[in-house]
Amino acid sequence: MRAVGWAHSFPIGGGVEAGRRWARERLAGLAWTADASETVDDILLTVSELITNAHVHARSTARLVLAWDSRCLNVYVADTGPGLPAPRGPEGLATSGRGLAIVDAIADEWGTHPTPHGKAVTACFHPPGTSAHDG
Known about the structure:
Largest sheet: 5 strands, antiparallel
GO molecular function, one term: protein serine/threonine kinase activity
Keywords: ATP-binding, Kinase, Nucleotide-binding, Serine/threonine-protein kinase, Transferase
Mean pLDDT: 89
Strand content: 25-35%
CATH class: Alpha Beta
Oligomer: single chain
CATH architecture: 2-Layer Sandwich
InterPro entries: Anti-sigma-factor_SerPK (IPR050267), HATPase_C_sf (IPR036890), HATPase_dom (IPR003594)
Number of domains: 1
CATH topology: Heat Shock Protein 90
Protein name: ATP-binding protein
Structural class: alpha+beta
Low-confidence stretches: none
């Protein structure tokens, strides 16, 4: 299969729910997702966390790209916030601050990258039964 991808921007008001719905609709078109509900759930949780981070921490529209390259489903979320984020431990009874730690725990690979107008966080998810070296 050749690579496929989709892109959409989600403004601060209502972007997280809309982003999850949009991502679920795109993923439904990939044959492997029918047998990989846990991976799909992990991808949707990552979309939620990264869009939330763009809205809350960068106070920015989130630009979401999903791309399937026959090896992994790539999630890319860019915003206009300065500096690169890093996972941090939860602070006491804080109800936030765990987004990147969650992504770190569920993604097969992830990273942060500066962009010309801010930053991006990427995460890669391999379908069950494949590895980073399958293609």
